[in-house]
User: What shape does this take?
Amino acid sequence: MTSTEVGNAAVTSDALDDEVMLRVEDLSVSFPTEDGVVQAVRGVSYEVKRGEVFAVVGESGCGKSVSSMALMGLLPKTARIEGRARYLDNDLLGRPDREVRGFRGSKLAMIFQDPMTSLNPVYTIGKQLAEAVLAHHRIAPKVAMERAIDMLDVVGIPQARKRAKSYPHEFSGGMRQRVMIAMAIINNPDVIIADEPTTALDVTVQAQILETLLEAKERVGAAIVLITHDLGVVAGMADRVGVMYAGRFVETGDVNEIFHATRMPYTAGLLGSIPDLDSEVAELTPIEGAPPSLINPPEGCKFMVRCPMARPACGESEPPLAPTDRPGHFSACKFSHELEGNQDTSEIFKPASVSGGAS
Amino acid sequence: MSEPLVEVSDLVKTFPIKGDGFLQRVVDQVQAVSGLSFDIAAGETLGLVGESGSGKSTAGRAILRLHEPTSGSIKFEGREVTELDSKAMQELRQRMQIVFQDPYASLNPKLPVNDIVGEPLVIHTKMNRKERERKVAQLLSDVGLQPEHGNRYPHEFSGGQRQRIGIARAIALDPDFVVLDEPVSALDVSVQAGVLNLLRRLQDERGMAYLFIAHDLSVVRHVSHRVAVMYLGKIVEIGERKALFQTSAHPYTRALMSAVPVADPHRERTRETITLEGDVPSPINPPSGCRFRTRCWRATDLCAAEAPELVEHTPGLLTACHHPIGPDEVVTRADTNSAVLAD
Assistant: This one.
């Protein structure tokens, strides 16, 4: 493995023998608009190893989806993409489509949020799955169809042979998302990018689909990049986590580190604002304000205006993602050391929690 | 205080399914709400929770007669609401309000916020402009917005702020009862918490009763005094929040609670979970007997033959189940997996 410059936002792990399947280096994406340039992603770096689940978590508009769409070549032509992304030894960005088409969709697969719009309503499920195989392999359509039926079986669709002849509208939301997982793994991918795979589903179905996704991952030995806004899903699925805010990672580390040794006020705020099903709290601790506009964002730390720990130094320059006191744990906060040894880091938001007039 | 503020009994709402043809003949009926009964006391929050298609939103709207109920009775302070003529209904609407889910669709984009929040005052009160302006400014500051921003338009506000505008409009006439239809599900968690705190504070200050409709159990737990769980148009369990969350006797409630992921990696990976098979069946043709039986690991022939009634199996809780789970009984994953589920 070459010791490539991973930029200041390195997400590394000790186990070097693990094969890195996907490495993203300093990825930036911007969109020119009438109002100015929207800097949707501003220097994102991470790597994912075989069999690993890396969760990208953040609120709406933080750039988590855009960063993955860039890898899959799914952004509109107006998007300006900079930085590097490598699948094994293959560059993914800045190359003509025909050169990367070979692994996009086969070695790199994607699962989208809305299974309703991701399937073609006028073809049968089986045909669409077979087509995914035929796009990458020179085999007989019959063989491809057999493969499609096998995959439907793998993702837990009962009577797969019969159901392969059904059309998407005959499937429920959960079943459709199973079909999307089948399509994602049908070519034995090395990397699966799952973009909010369960957001459109009910919780009882979500639990099934997440389980199916993990089983599918085990079966093909892929790495998963899981994009989500749901910290509960992250807690159950991820090995490592990157928390995104205003187009950048503001905290990265092992899942237990992120939840139990939080070193970034934003993450602490997110954790404090979730109502817990197992305990009763009188008052939640919201984060005041809203994320900044990504057209001409303010200087300095982008979270500063919402941060209870903010002070003048935060406005001088944007803090880089830097190592913390914990191994493998990075934070983009100049004062992350102040969170050390703090059991309930969301406490820092408490004084600011009473919004408009107290009761 | 003995009489409940809102009393719903046997509420039914069916929607016709029309054919594709020119005549649009009614080919079938969907019973979105099939016989709901519950009451809400003044100043109380009843959480109404269920998955998509459970009929929870339809129920909320039928109570306000935004959907005309098919049958059943709705009483507000003992007065039958379903029989009121339009004039009396308009009178009553001052006291019953609603906050919608989508803060982007529920505010008129062409009106400045002052007009949006002031509109109920124009319709229902004789306030002059000065009084109205003062009242709107007060309302905006009550919901945590700056009154100076009242001349801005909805698109200039974030999702959380828009939901606050919707709340200001709903409380403008000092209602006694507000239906909150998924008020925070379109919001990011960090913003959601602020809106939930606001709703709570407004209730403390004004003594309003809420019907809080949501699919998110942890949110419902956070805001409700009592909770009703709906499945395919029926209440399967209803009772005190504590009882429901700690000693639920209904397999569906237990499964629903178990399916909510916990934002704690250790707990999330070690806790006992119940994974239900399949999806919610179509409400056009619901299963016979107990509607949950097709996904239930405890289902027997009795469940197919007979619909269970709401009965008190655990104190403070009414449960509609032939095979209720005991308060101390722990459901393990093995239990739910061992049952082979027939279609």
In short: Chain A touches chain B through 52 residues (CB under 8 Å). Confidence is low (pLDDT under 50) at residues 1-17, 352-359 of chain A.
